[in-house]
Amino acid sequence: MSTTTRLKIANYLDIPEGTTLPFEHPSLKRPLLLCRVDGEIYCIEDNCSHRVFPLRDGDLEGFQLRCPLHGATFDVRTGEATGFPAYRAIKTFPLHIDEDHDIFVDIETDPEPGRISIGNL
Ligand code: FES
After folding, report:
1. Alpha carbon nearest to ligand 1 atom 4, residue
2. N or C of the chain: less Cβ packing under 10 Å?
């Protein structure tokens, strides 16, 4: 049986408008990517669904994040693939922000010590 743990991943003030911030954790198979658009923070997996390639160096134009390798685009609000050559969505994750502007994500911890996951990341 797994349990849910809330993990602090950043502070809102660390992410300027229109930028992204990667988050890595030793127990996650793949990093997460925080994206700030119009004052809101969105959390996606930092991995293009076209090939295994990080999105962190891609251009963020409005809600669209462009993969730096072949140019696929994704809507950071939904993870939807919005531009060729990707056609599969990427994962998105709900966030919690406290009164100190700290940003948290919920992770699942399974009974195997030291192994955590968010969804199937
Ligand atoms: S790896 Fe991202 S578009 Fe090809």
Report:
1. 70
2. N
